[in-house]
Amino acid sequence: MNDQDGTVFLIDDDPGVRDALALLLSLKGMSTQPFATADSFIEAYRPERAGCVLTDLRMPGMTGLELQAELAARHVEVPFVVLTARAALKNGAFDFLEKPVDDAQLVEVLRNALRADRERRTASSSRSAADARLARLTAREREILALLAAGHQNREIATQLEISPRTVEVHKARIMEKLDCHSLAELIRMNPAAG
């Protein structure tokens, strides 16, 4: 693992625990960034940074669960692993571990959290690219794409939109070019209504 795989944002008010966890994770090849408080994490964190949060439940100031709720309120999606907190699962935590935590189990959970974050970011990036291509379509092209995705043939679309079949073909070719699609099946998958 390396920084490209993501960072474990380690939040614990106990410096001994923080140092021990950071050492363990670095020995396992994981990048960490330690924080003493949830507030210091919120100040430093940037959502574009890949990673996951490993936090203690009980800390002075903002608790681990309050941090989780604060990030959710800000629409920050990051896998959350909470130490000692069964209640965290109800609030959307990726996992919870009770202290004293087994080192191998902790590393496995964090690797799974980092993988989930990578997959979410990849999917989000793919959706953003598809959305950007779809935004280039004119209203008429969107109309034709929706009808193609619904299974209509060029002649049916032409009749329904009161245009010539040749005009439908021209629009279809432009749609395929704008969406960088090479087949009708690929084009239909790009339709937002098709998922």
Report what the structure shows.
The chain has a five-stranded parallel beta sheet, sandwiched between helices. It is built from nine helices and five strands; from the N terminus they run E-H-E-H-E-H-E-H-E-H-H-H-H-H. With 195 residues, it is α/β, with parallel strands linked by helices. The mean pLDDT is 83. The chain has helices at 15-27, 38-44, 64-73, 87-90, 103-135, 139-149, 154-161, 165-179, 184-190; strands spanning 7-11, 31-35, 51-56, 80-83, 95-97. Strand 3 (51-56), helix 3 and strand 4 form a beta-alpha-beta unit.
Average pLDDT over all residues: 83
Given the helix and strand composition, which structural class is it? alpha/beta
From the alpha-carbon coordinates, what is the Rg to the nearest angstrom?
24 Å
Helix content: 55-70%
Distance between the termini: 33 Å
Strand order of the largest sheet: 2-1-3-4-5
Give the oligomeric state.
single chain
